[in-house]
Design brief:
The protein is α+β, with helices and mostly antiparallel strands. It has helices at about 1-20, 35-40, and strands spanning about 40-55, 60-65, 70-75, 80, 95-100, 105-110, 110-120, 125-135, 140-149. It comes from Pontibacter burrus.
């Protein structure tokens, strides 16, 4: 009886120690504004973009898979988005860039502006998320960009 109890306790101990070693997703530390700029600067290819629009609690999601010619290029005061369009001349979307927020930056173009939050940052991968309102005041757009080098 005592041997059975000891084995049970040892088994529970091993189980608990294994569970405590389970990998948990570590929270990404907040980057300073300067670190944010340094992480983002350069050319990033587009792996995919998830688009979501929500109106009064109803959300629709769509996606875009990047081609080998699609990329974001971030500079110290500007950004350019290149997307391939079959049969069209490749014209970049141009933005002013401000790297003044910790863990985020702002892109503006004419009267449009959006804050891009860094959700994941590695040497070869960057995940950006931005939310903004459009002409419809009840609609919230959320774009998630999966970028790689």
């Amino acid at each position: 009886m005592i041997k059975h109890s000891i084995r049970t306790l040892l088994g529970l101990g091993v189980l608990l120690s294994c569970l405590s070693c389970e990998d948990k997703e570590a929270a990404m530390p907040t980057l300073s504004a300067e670190q944010t700029r340094n992480v983002v600067l350069g050319k990033w290819k587009i792996q995919k973009v998830n688009y979501q629009i929500c109106r009064q609690g109803n959300c629709n999601t769509s996606g875009y898979t990047g081609s080998t010619q699609d990329y974001f290029e971030f500079r110290t005061d500007s950004a350019f988005l290149y997307r391939s369009t079959p049969g069209a001349v490749k014209q970049p979307e141009k933005f002013k860039a401000a790297y003044t927020k910790p863990g985020a930056f702002v892109l503006t173009h004419l009267f449009w502006s959006a804050t891009y939050n860094i959700k994941e940052s590695r040497q070869d991968k960057l995940v950006l998320e931005c939310s903004f309102a459009g002409a419809d005041p009840y609609a919230i757009f959320t774009d998630t960009y999966y970028l790689y080098r």
